[in-house]
Amino acid sequence: MIKKSMDEFIRNDREQELIQMVDTLAARFAKRAAKYDVEGSFPFENFADLKSAGYLKLTVPKEFGGDEISLYEMLLLQERLATGDGSTALAVGWHVGLMLNLRYTRSWPDGLYAEFCRNVVEKGTMLNNFASEPTTGSPTRGGRPATIAERVDGGWVITGRKTFSTLSPVLDQFVVTASIANEDSVGEFLVAKSEGVQVEETWDTLGMRGTGSHDLILQRAFVEDGKLLRRVVPGEKSLQDQLGNGWLLHIPACYLGIAFSARNFAVQFAKRHRPNSLQGSISELPHIQSQIGQMEAELRTARTLMYSIAERWDQDIENRPHFKTELGLVKYVATNSALSVVDKAMRIVGGLSLYRTLPLERMYRDVRAGLHNPPMDDAVIRDLAKTALSEA
User: Fold this and answer.
1) pLDDT at 2
2) Where does the record place the Acyl-CoA oxidase/dehydrogenase middle domain (predicted)?
3) Of 50-54, 56-60, 167-171, 230-234, where does mean pLDDT reach its minimum?
4) Are residues 152 and 249 in the same domain?
5) Residue 135, pLDDT above cutoff 90
């Protein structure tokens, strides 16, 4: 049997079993994707399926009942999930990625971390970190949060607005960054939904319409003592920086999955589409074969880079702090390659690709969101330039 190109990075039977589970989910999600996209609604049904399948606990440590899969394995699954529905894959990617990150940083108080992990395993609790704001933009740009945390008896009250709050419709708890009043520091707080917390449904976008990335409004939301996870002093390196943010590779994995799905659709279309001006299908035309070959080259290059860096990150623990440039490069290459692949798929299918009755139109919109996920292209290029100049 010829091994399909998407299976080339599966290394063992364990990974094959995980892939089979995710392929079943992806096929199910693909049937619902158009509905959620048109409505701009949150795919609660998909997340119920993820919970039932045990997907939400995959990156949780074994000591708390999780599967403790590696970064490499997480990317295999995230990429496959995105072939079914990019919005669902990107949204759940923040949860499984953050849980993988916490497994290494252990930046939360021990008891709170253990309790949360058990809730993920037993109840399907999910997590995301809300840091973006209207006035500061992406936290990767270094802006100080306008959200303010004030000390009160028994805890803290937090006031502010967070944007791009992915998963907000389904989360009961989430991490919020806030400037601590009367201090030159920023705190990360574990906030539970309460009367002081409101989700304003602002997410009406071109692509990734099912991620539920609404605005989160906090009006003196109370956070009890013990839920201040950590303080970060501006200019100091965080634990994430010290250990390397490998978990953020869930982002390029998602967009490569979308691109692979577009590639599959275009190739299948080319093999069966037979205009009456031709004796065979359009797959026999040189310019169509050229487009297909270019798609293959871009996908194989980006995927090889991503999985090789992920494998190194998993194995070379001591050097994880030095992976920043390579991790950024993976995101840059993968998202831009994904854009190019989907564009070529649209050209192969032609004008029919514009119809909403076909999935390519949605993929074309979804894949463009990758340009706006961290790290941004300009930051990656700047880091590469600084590295080259420092070595010259």
Assistant:
1) 46
2) 131-219
3) 230-234
4) no
5) no
What does the alpha-carbon distance between residue 126 and residue 117 come to, in Å, rounded to a whole number?
10
Phi and psi based region of residue 226 (left: phi greater than 0; alpha: psi -120 to 50; beta: remaining)? left
Percent of the chain exceeding pLDDT 70 equals 95
Q: Residue 275 is encoded by which pair of tokens? A: 């205009």
- Same domain? For 91 and 177 the reply is no
Amino acid symbol at 250: H
Q: Residue 62 CB: number of other CB atoms within 10 A?
A: 9
Is 210 in contact with 243 (CB distance < 8 Å)?
no
3-state helix, strand, coil split of the chain in percent (to 5) is: 60, 15, 30
Look at residue 330 and tell me whether its pLDDT is greater than 50: yes
The total domain count for the chain is 3
3-class DSSP state of 200: strand
Q: Which CATH number does the domain housing residue 21 bear?
A: 1.10.540.10
Distance from first CA to last CA of the chain, Å, rounded? Answer: 49
Same domain, yes or no: 270 and 355: yes
The two three-digit tokens of residue 27, written as one number = 């096929």
Query: Averaged over 330-350, what is the pLDDT?
Result: 98
Say which CATH number the domain at 140 has: 2.40.110.10
Classify the C-alpha dihedral 77-80-82-84 as positive or negative: negative
Copy the structure tokens of residue 374.
């961290």
Paired tokens of 388:
């080259």
Q: Give the range of the structural domain holding residue 297, as residue numbers without chain letter.
A: 239-391
Query: Is the pLDDT score of 1 beyond 50?
Result: no
| DSSP code for 280 | S
pLDDT in the model for residue 249 = 98
CA 268 to CA 61: how far, in whole Å? 40
End of a domain among 211, 232, 253? 232
* pTM over cut 0.90: yes
Q: Are 134 and 101 in the same domain?
A: no
Q: Give dist(CA 209, CA 86) in Å, integer.
A: 9
